[in-house]
Structure formats: C-alpha cells, structure tokens
Amino acid sequence: MKVAIVGSGYVGLVTGTCFAEVGIEVVCVDIDQKKIENLKQGIIPIYEPGLEEMVHRNMKKERLRFTTSTAEALEDCEVIFSAVGTPPDEDGSADLQYVISVARDCGKYMKDYLLIVTKSTVPVGTASKVRKAVQEELDKRGLSIEFDVASNPEFLKEGAAIDDFLKPDRIVVGCNSTRAEELMKALYKPFTLNGHPVIFMDITSAEMTKYAANSMLATKISFMNDIANLCEIVGADINMVRRGIGSDSRIGNKFIYPGIGYGGSCFPKDVKALIHTADDFKYPLRILKAVEDVNFDQKSILFNKFVKHFNGNIEGKTVAIWGLSFKPQTDDMREAPSVVIIQKLIEAGVKVKAYDPVAMNEAKRTLGDAIYYAPDQYDALIDADCLMIITEWPEFKFPNFNIIRKLLKEQIIFDGRNIYEIPEMKRKGFTYYCIGVDTTR
User: Where in the chain do CATH 3.40.50.720 domains reside?
Assistant: First the structure.
C-alpha cells in the first residue's frame, strides 16, 4: 500500500515515518520547498527523540520520500492523510484554510478512488467541508470519481510521539463507508497485532473525540493548579494532596502535577477551538472557559513570586532560567510559559540569562536577542540574583548544588515544576519557592 501525507510538520512527519517503519511506502508532501530539500538531505525540522534515526533508516530503504508536489504524491496512492496546521484565528476558531487547500488539491489531481483522511485536529463539521471542496474540484474537471473522507485524529505526546504511534493506547477512526473502514483496518493492522484497539465511529464523533480528550487533560492541569494555589493560602502541601487523590483509580496520577500552566501546540488551541464551536451553537462551555482563565493566570505565578520576594524592587536584577520549551523532550516553544515569564521580566527591567538543552534556536525565533542564551546550565547562573526552573528537563533534577551556590549572587530558587524536595533545599541553605506549598511558613 502507498500512502501520502500532506504536511511534514510534527504530526505529518511522525505519522509518515512510523508508517514507513512497518513497511508501507510513504510520500510526505509540504509546500515549504526549503523544508523538503532539508528533509531529502536528512535534516529534520523538529526535535523528537528517535525520529531522526528512523527517518534516515526508512529513506535509505526507499520506503520514505519527500516532495512538494501533491499531484506526484497521488500517483498510485489510495490513501492520503491531511496533516497540515490548523492555527487559531483571532477569535479562537481553527483556521481551516490549509485543510481545505489539501482537499482541493485532491480533487484537482486524483485519478482513481481515494480515501482522504484528516489527521489534523479540526472542528466538528470539517469532514463535510472537505467533501464539498473535493467534489467542487471534480465537478470542474467534469469527472465522477468515487472517494471517501475519514477522520483519524492523532494522540501523540511531544517527546514520546514515536512510542505513542507504534504502541498506541487506541486508534480512533471516523468513517461512513465499509470500503474506508476496510482500508483503515489494513493500514493499521501492524499496530493492532499486540491488542491495541482501533475504535471505529462516525466522523462527527471522531472529530469531537480529539477536542474532548485534550480539553479533559487541560482541565485536570488547570484544576490542580487552582487547588495548588489554594493550598499555599491555607497552608496545605499540594504534593501530599496530589498523592492522596492520585491513588484514587477514578482520578489517576497523570496530569495532576502542579506547575506554571500548560502550553504547546495542542491544549491551548484545542481548548479555544472547542469553546468557539460551542459558542457557535449558543452553548457556553463554562468549565472550559474557566480552565483557560486559570491557565492564563498560572503562567504569571512564578513572576509574581519573584516580585513579592524582592518587595517589588526588581529593576536591574538578573534572573537565570533553566528550561524554555513548554515541556521536556521537545523544542516546541508554542504557548510556552517561559515566553510569558520572560516577557514580564524584560518589561520590568530584569536581565534574563536562559538555557535549554534543545529549544535554544526555537526560543531565538520567538524571543529574539532580548535575552542571553547560555551555552550550558551553569553559565546561566553567573552573576544571577536567582534561578527560575521553567521546564523539568532530566538534567535539571540532579544538579551540582555546590556550583549553583557559588555562582548565584543569592541562594534563591523559584521552582515552577516542583522538582526538588523542600526539606533538602532548606538543608542546603536555599530560599526555595515552588508551586502549591508556602515554603516561607
């Protein structure tokens, strides 16, 4: 079977490479000629553990190739995945221009039956718009060619995307024809041999499933951050509370860690898009609106602690920051809490020295030359008044505290991810602030 993947960003590249890994012939398409030329040379546009080696391996075996031509990719192709971006518009709705563009290209260039699968996260009702766009292009050509539209939302976690695709919790497929269902069963058979289920449903339900899943996870994060803030006020310890509720199987211990807010390419835009969809149908999603509000405020909490510690006298201070990406094992800076914190620091006249293991180049695109990019985590500490931990990279969890003590002007750490133990930090002589615990008591 030959598969085309349109969009060679995070979702498209991981999807295409993993399909190639199990022996499927894959052609990845992107309109960005520079990106395609780089990919042909083995230069990967994103950081994802294990991806680069897998791309090189499958290119060498000629199971994975890249092109800028959708027409070329559709030659002898029975299934095409649309994995293009759906960035949020100013009103929070998903921008579908790229999804519809892919659909029109399919209508322009398809010669035989084609299954068009939307992999991008799209609002309810997108499949009908895709079908309409394809049919309009076929009508312009005066052709009657059978085709199907399906929805196959992705559930990839950045930093663990390869494992998520090869060993999925579940595969969700929305389709409305037996032919489309049989094709998707055949395509995903290598991934279901170990018992991982393919859940077939109608297209509308599949489109909703992706938004509902991400919104539920975002809700858990914002709920715990709200509780963490209350814990600080009343004198409770959020770490103990988390252990107490996480042992309840109905709640579970995932996505209940307090922090400085969620970011990335999925949760923020998907929550906004689902809120917007509900508003279109005159049904306000009150819980999700609160989730978004809590998350917005949470991204400022570390800055607020910093201001409070120095009694508002922060102009001219220097802050060392460890971690820039929105989470470990990725270079993704989209909606990263670090951006909000750094912008607030700069606006207040604070100098920032930052280090991240992989996200430095992406950070420069977002923040420019407004901060100092340190060559290593300890260089960032030199002459800094305090340290802020934004992203819980493994190398930050067991640092040399003697070096930290020597390099910082004052032994102050603001930990946005609660990666250190409070008693240990006090024993080591640090003034330590974290989330959900009043460490000054």
Answer: 2-201, 299-433
- CA pair distance 360, 380, nearest whole angstrom: 13
Q: Which CATH number fits domain 2-201: 3.40.50.720, 3.40.190.10, 1.10.10.10, 3.40.50.2300?
A: 3.40.50.720
| CB of 96 closer than 8 Å to CB of 122 | yes
Query: Which residue carries 């949760």 as its tokens?
Result: 267
299-433: CATH, from 1.25.40.10, 2.40.50.100, 3.40.50.720, 3.90.550.10: 3.40.50.720
Cα 407 to Cα 13: distance, rounded to the nearest angstrom: 42
Residue with tokens 């201070």: 317
pLDDT over 90 at 385, yes or no:
yes
Say what percent of the chain tops pLDDT 70. Answer: 100
**Does domain 211-297 sit in CATH 1.10.150.120?**
no
Q: Indicate the length of the chain as a whole number.
A: 441
By C-alpha distance, which of 200, 230, 204, 206 is closest to 154? 206
Confidence class for position 196, pLDDT limits 50, 70, 90: confident
pLDDT in tens, 167-188: 998 999 999 999 999 999 999 9
Q: Residue with structure tokens 């080696």? A: 53
Rounded CA-CA distance 28/33 in Å is: 12
- List active site positions: 266
